[in-house]
Amino acid sequence: SIVEQYLQPGQQVVDATAGNGHDSCFLARQVGARGRVFVFDIQQQALDSTASRLRDQGQAAQVTLVYRGHEHLLDEIPATDHGHIQAVMFNLGYLPHGDKTRTTTSATTLPALAQARAVLAPGGIITVLAYRGHPGGQEEAQDVERQLQRLAGEGLQLSVIPSPGPVLFVLAPERYD
Ligand SMILES: C[S@@+](CC[C@H](N)C(=O)[O-])C[C@H]1O[C@@H](n2cnc3c(N)ncnc32)[C@H](O)[C@@H]1O
User: Fold this and answer.
1) Are 132 and 147 in contact (CB under 8 A)?
2) Domains and CATH numbers, the chain
């Protein structure tokens, strides 16, 4: 994946939407035992599912689970780590196999993106996978694109990678589209 090229063992990263923990496991594997992954979700079910996946893969030790929205990212990530977060991944929408009405929304996603930008390390990357099929998904994807355009510059470029399903936004030193 694109994110993989940006990661080294020992780095600090964020999974802004735990869901069932696939991205958390990927990040934990990449940063290794000396790295740190901060994982956010507003549903206990998502954090439980993520924790059990991490345990199964022997990667729970380097992960901090935060039972709070990613719009509190600046508060929840220790100040000493601000400016040192190498990657922040967002996977928007609802929890697969969970409550389909509890989706991410622009009101919290947009401030979370600004906070992700604020904690990012020089040379770091933010990715946002946005689904457009559920109610509000299309509007949220448009809002995300506008917000990422605002946050681009100062060494970060926005790429928009479409697909028949979700759209992938990448804010990184390099372009991918
Ligand atoms: C599409 S899922 C994530 C899928 C996940 N990356 C995976 O690998 O399974 C979206 C998740 O975002 C969570 N969510 C919704 N609003 C949130 C918020 N404000 N902060 C953090 N997570 C939120 C939902 O509870 C849901 O678990």
Assistant:
1) no
2) 3-172 (3.40.50.150)
